[in-house]
Structure formats: structure tokens, C-alpha cells
What we know:
Layout: E1 9-10, E2 16-17, H1 27-39, H2 47-76, H3 91-97, H4 116-122, H5 124-131, E3 137-141, E4 165-166, E5 186-189, E6 194-200, E7 231-237, E8 239-248, H6 249-253, H7 255-280, E9 297-299, H8 309-322, E10 329-332, H9 334-341, E11 364-365, E12 368-372, E13 380-384, H10 386-389, E14 391-394, E15 399-403, E16 414-426, E17 433-437
Parallel strand pairs: 4-6, 5-14, 9-17, 10-12
Antiparallel strand pairs: 1-2, 3-15, 6-7, 8-16, 10-13, 11-12, 13-17, 14-16, 15-16
Helix pairs in contact: 1-2, 4-7
Amino acid sequence: MSNRAKPIGRRRDGRPIYPIKGAAPTLTEQRDAILARLRDENFDGDHDALMAEADDIEARIEQANQRQARLDRLSAAAPPAPGGSGSGSGPEQRGQQREDRGYQPDDQGRQHPVTVAEAFIRSRALETYRAAGYTGKTRVDFGPDDVRDAPAGTVNTGTYPLQNTRVPGIIPQNPDYPLLVANLLDRQTSDGTTLEYLRDTSGPVTGTGTWNKAAVVPEGTTKPMSGPFSFDLITTTLKTVAHWVPITRQAADDNGQLMGYINGRLTYGLDFKLDREILTGNGSSQMQGILTTPGIGTYRPGVGSTDAKLITVRKARTQAELALYPPDSIVMSPLDWQDIQLDEDKNGQFRVITSVQDPGAPLRLWGLTVVTSVAMSAGTALLGGFRAGATLWERQGVTILMSDSHANFFIENTIAILAERRANVAVHTPASFVKITFAAATA
């Protein structure tokens, strides 16, 4: 009988992995052993225990990476020269005593980035790029849901064939209090560049329609069929939203300034444009906007109506409820929201009671979350069940790229920093939205 130890797993090329004689297996060997069992379709062991082992080795590898990163930074750090003019009291020395903004812990105290800018500042890609004197370009990608543990590498969509993302169904959620229109929608991640989904073209339903024929049925009799329903298979592509700004090398070396550019200009600019695409995109060269989707409901006061905008919104909500698509939010122009807030009765009292002393409080009207947007034309509004009616699909979160390879930037010590994201909107239930047209103001 051979005294050779049994393999603890197999590598990707099929070769067995043996433990080192007299030593515990390395993290890499333990990881490969777990990967081999995860890939084994015939594995009949304890799956819960296997998942726990995988979580444990992943956490230990992450801890080792963090320790190595901290070791690298500490090794590169150098104290000020003794006897210098700045003996710890100047602004530069005071700045060295505080923790770098890009390395602040998150709300649980973990040393992880909490924003795209902080993740970019911490990435090894930026560290390497700075060490190379900002020559060439660097790129860092972040997931749409969580920038923690974001990969510091390049994603090349031509490396592997991508499959179309087909939407299996809708999971409605309760509305929150968003700052942007995008936050009203259900948000999901796409694995490809082409998006396929079913759009319900049945239109609004009513209490007397045929959509629901559920009934109490005696035993042995035929059950009723509900419907009819109609759906269209929509095929579209994810759209890229991007822009860039020039910065100096000095600004790129300053983590505070760099974070300000990324968070204050680039990522906010992407969100600003995404909001408008969600509302008014043409669905062709742009994203699919809700207002340009066929089949959404409409509400307009009757000819000669003098209904105030406050009353119009309430009647439009009733229309949505009668169609069995309860609304949760409304998007309108700041000018229309101003008219509603300043609407007075005959005694000069505001009809809408708002918290004037707390401008940061969530905006509500008739139980609806209110989002104001300059993308919405004055005189119109969009009411609906946003989470139940549409989904924002994102191929990636935000990608940050830096390069001096543009025009004369190399000789001018200037760097281009670019931000982009890829997404599109699937308006799968148009009937859950109602476009409101307010009555014209009378003299």
C-alpha cells in the first residue's frame, strides 16, 4: 500500500493537489480544494458545510489581501526628516496626522470604501497608475449595488460570449423615499448587453373585465379561464451614458480633490442624465423612457375644468386605482409642485400642509412619494406604481477611467478622468403609469 498522502483537491487542469508534507495546506491550496468540490456536479457531501468552508476561506483570503495592502502602504510611508522647518506643526504635517479621506471606515467600522470615489482612491489600479507617472490609462469597474470589494481591473466584453438577459418576472417592492427618479424603480443587474423582456399590452383592467374569472366552482365542473392577456417580447440593448472632465496631475495626486471630481461632478452627472432617460428616452438611440412607452394611461381634466393641480392629482390617482394598478409615486416639474404647495383656499390658508421648517423631509401628496425633476415639462406629471411597472437593468455600476493620452494632455500635465455606466429601462407594465396633463391656468 502506498504511503503517499491523499490529494486534497484538483487544479483546473485536472492535476491533483497534495498537502505539503509536514505543513498545513496554503490558502491557495485550500481554495483550490474547495473550488474542486464546488465544481463537482456529483458532490454528495454536506452542502451547508461546504458553503461554510467557502465563506471562511474567502474571508481569510480577503483578510490576507488587506494585510498585504496595509503592509505595502506602511512600507512606502516615510516620516518627515528630523530637524526640518515643519516640526509637526505646519499644515502639511497636520494633514499627515489625520486619516486619508479615501480610507475612512464604513458605517459598520470596516475598512472598506463606501462610495465610488473612495473605492477608486483605494484601488490598486490607481496606485499602480500613479506610480507609473499617470502614463497611459487605467480603468476601475464597480458593481451597481455595492462598491465594497470592487474589482480593480479591466472588464473586456469581448473576452467571453455574453448571453441575452431575459427577465423571468417581476417582484414588486414597497417604495422608499428617493432623491432621483431612478430610485423609484426596481433595480436589477444584467449579465449581457442585450435585454429581452415581456411587455404586458393587455392595457388597463377594470372590475368588470375578463382578466380575472376566478370563481367558486362545484366539484367535477369546468373551471373558468381568466384573460385574455397579451404580451410582446421586447428586445433592446443596454445604453452607455458617459462624460469626462480634465484635471491636473496635482489634483489627481490629491485624494480629496479627486474624490470631489468623481462624486461631485462625474457620478452625479451620470445620475442626472439617467433620470432624464428614464422619463423621456426615445427607446431607440436612447434608453426606453416611460413617457415614450406605448400603452401608458393618460388623465386630463375635462374641457373647461378649473380643477386645481392638487385636485387633478387626486382624480388621476383614482383612475389608476380603478384600473387595479395602485400608484406609489408621482414625478412632476418643480414649477407644478410649487403651485401645489402654494395653493390657498379663500381664507388664505395653504391647502397642502408641508413642513416648511424641514426642507429635507420626504415630499408626500395624497399618500404618494413626490419627486421633482426639471426633465418633466411644466404642466405634466407622471403618476404610477413605479416598482411594479418598470425595472432599471444595469450592466455595470460606474466605471472610472483615467488617461493622459488625449490631445496635448501629456505635455500639459493634464489628465482626462471619465465616468460611464451601461443601463436601460424595461417598462414591462405600461398600464401601471398615468401621464397627467394639468388644466391650463385661467386669468
